[in-house]
């Protein structure tokens, strides 16, 4: 069989990304991060769209060049249809449509959240692909879900956050501690140097498989305010222990629900996806769960955890195999279900 080359575009939030896949293998995976948002402490949608528009053509050119592929060799174009910021999504979809029309090749619309899960099906040496059915924990700046994945396109959300996403919990905690946006990776960095039991934060009581993180954020805010009133340097002096305690609490919340999901479904295969799965504590705890609970866990390669286009490409490839194509009237969607 002759291989198919798929160009994929991801522009749902603040990263402009393009990748080229040869079937399930990634030939190139390029991301242009937008630093403009740092000074605002969060993503500014209007600035994100503008930066996508500046970045998209160069990012695609670099992805093609790195893959050693010309536009004329492409067999399909995949792009993120949603969920995400509308203005950001529109840049990627308009670009993908124009190029697919110009090259007269199929266009494939991809759900960003499916892509975070199906990133596990990229061919990558040293990484096993999960077998169906498995449970996926998707943890990002916008989502926190436990998904029962029965086949490539048969997914059921069995638990989700009722307020903030895990990534938001990380980023908002980091902001309270005076760390720059996005603070998740920094909290993780300091957490590795601190005592996780230094400051016991309480876990929220949420029924079933759902999550809540807004209470934790408030708890951390009051905790910091109270201590800073007594010692203005409290945060600087105890950064490692505070971060370790926050991380410990968040991981416990996630693990409690995962254990419940495994018990309820009888499925012991657990895959993680989304930006927060880059977290060292979560990765370590899941690895331990293999021995401790007899689970099989799947942790994606680092570059496929935060937003990237390779994950859009792998979904594109599987839709291509099924001939699930879109025509040029396909529209971006800020919200879509799995
Ligand atoms: O999937 P992603 O790149 O974008 C969204 O779709 O939201 O996730 C970004 C989120 C941010 O909240 C960021 O702080 C968080 O992932 N994140 C981390 C780590 N790396 C990224 N949170 C905790 N620990 C990390 N190592
Ligand atoms: Zn994402």
Automatic annotation (TrEMBL):
<keyword id="KW-0408">Iron</keyword>
<feature type="binding site">
    <location>
        <position position="184"/>
    </location>
    <ligand>
        <name>substrate</name>
    </ligand>
</feature>
<keyword id="KW-0808">Transferase</keyword>
<dbReference type="GO" id="GO:0005506">
    <property type="term" value="F:iron ion binding"/>
</dbReference>
<feature type="binding site">
    <location>
        <position position="112"/>
    </location>
    <ligand>
        <name>Fe cation</name>
    </ligand>
</feature>
<keyword id="KW-0012">Acyltransferase</keyword>
<keyword id="KW-0819">tRNA processing</keyword>
<dbReference type="GO" id="GO:0005737">
    <property type="term" value="C:cytoplasm"/>
</dbReference>
<keyword id="KW-0963">Cytoplasm</keyword>
<feature type="binding site">
    <location>
        <position position="188"/>
    </location>
    <ligand>
        <name>substrate</name>
    </ligand>
</feature>
<dbReference type="InterPro" id="IPR017861">
    <property type="entry name" value="KAE1/TsaD"/>
</dbReference>
<feature type="binding site">
    <location>
        <position position="171"/>
    </location>
    <ligand>
        <name>substrate</name>
    </ligand>
</feature>
<feature type="binding site">
    <location>
        <begin position="138"/>
        <end position="142"/>
    </location>
    <ligand>
        <name>substrate</name>
    </ligand>
</feature>
<dbReference type="InterPro" id="IPR017860">
    <property type="entry name" value="Peptidase_M22_CS"/>
</dbReference>
<dbReference type="InterPro" id="IPR043129">
    <property type="entry name" value="ATPase_NBD"/>
</dbReference>
<comment type="similarity">
    <text>Belongs to the KAE1 / TsaD family.</text>
</comment>
<dbReference type="InterPro" id="IPR000905">
    <property type="entry name" value="Gcp-like_dom"/>
</dbReference>
<protein>
    <recommendedName>
        <fullName>tRNA N6-adenosine threonylcarbamoyltransferase</fullName>
        <ecNumber>2.3.1.234</ecNumber>
    </recommendedName>
</protein>
<feature type="binding site">
    <location>
        <position position="279"/>
    </location>
    <ligand>
        <name>substrate</name>
    </ligand>
</feature>
<feature type="binding site">
    <location>
        <position position="116"/>
    </location>
    <ligand>
        <name>Fe cation</name>
    </ligand>
</feature>
<keyword id="KW-0479">Metal-binding</keyword>
<comment type="function">
    <text>Required for the formation of a threonylcarbamoyl group on adenosine at position 37 (t(6)A37) in tRNAs that read codons beginning with adenine. Is involved in the transfer of the threonylcarbamoyl moiety of threonylcarbamoyl-AMP (TC-AMP) to the N6 group of A37, together with TsaE and TsaB. TsaD likely plays a direct catalytic role in this reaction.</text>
</comment>
<dbReference type="GO" id="GO:0061711">
    <property type="term" value="F:tRNA N(6)-L-threonylcarbamoyladenine synthase activity"/>
</dbReference>
<dbReference type="Pfam" id="PF00814">
    <property type="entry name" value="TsaD"/>
</dbReference>
<dbReference type="InterPro" id="IPR022450">
    <property type="entry name" value="TsaD"/>
</dbReference>
<feature type="domain" description="Gcp-like">
    <location>
        <begin position="25"/>
        <end position="313"/>
    </location>
</feature>
<feature type="binding site">
    <location>
        <position position="307"/>
    </location>
    <ligand>
        <name>Fe cation</name>
    </ligand>
</feature>
<dbReference type="GO" id="GO:0002949">
    <property type="term" value="P:tRNA threonylcarbamoyladenosine modification"/>
</dbReference>
């Amino acid at each position: 069989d002759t291989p198919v080359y798929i160009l994929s575009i991801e522009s749902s939030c603040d990263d402009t990304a393009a990748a080229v896949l040869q079937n399930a293998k990634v030939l190139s995976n390029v991301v242009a991060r937008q630093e403009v948002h740092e000074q605002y402490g969060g993503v500014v949608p209007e600035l994100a769209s503008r930066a996508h528009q500046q970045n998209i053509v160069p990012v695609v050119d670099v992805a093609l060049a790195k893959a050693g592929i010309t536009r004329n060799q492409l067999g399909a174009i995949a792009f993120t249809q949603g969920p995400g910021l509308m203005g950001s999504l529109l840049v990627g979809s308009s670009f993908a449509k124009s190029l697919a029309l110009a090259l007269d090749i199929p266009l494939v619309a991809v759900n960003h959240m499916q892509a975070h899960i199906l990133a596990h099906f990229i061919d990558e040496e040293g990484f096993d692909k999960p077998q169906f059915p498995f449970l996926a924990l998707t943890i990002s700046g916008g989502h926190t879900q436990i998904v029962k994945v029965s086949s490539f396109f048969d997914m059921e959300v069995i638990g989700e956050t009722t307020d903030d996403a895990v990534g938001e919990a990380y980023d908002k905690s980091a902001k309270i501690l005076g760390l720059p946006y996005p603070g998740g990776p920094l909290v993780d960095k300091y957490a590795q140097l601190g005592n996780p039991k230094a400051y016991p934060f309480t876990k929220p009581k949420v029924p079933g498989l759902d999550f809540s993180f807004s209470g934790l954020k408030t708890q951390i805010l009051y905790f910091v305010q109270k201590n800073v009133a007594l010692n203005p340097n409290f945060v600087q002096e105890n950064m490692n222990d505070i971060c370790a305690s926050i991380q410990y609490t968040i991981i416990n919340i996630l693990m409690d629900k995962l254990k419940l999901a495994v018990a309820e479904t009888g499925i012991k295969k657990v895959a993680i996806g989304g930006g927060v799965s880059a977290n060292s504590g979560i990765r370590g705890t899941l690895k331990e769960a293999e021995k401790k609970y007899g689970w099989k866990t799947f942790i994606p390669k680092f570059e496929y955890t935060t937003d990237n286009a390779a994950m859009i490409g792998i979904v594109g490839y599987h839709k291509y195999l099924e001939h699930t194509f879109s025509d040029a009237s396909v529209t971006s969607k800020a919200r879509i279900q799995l």
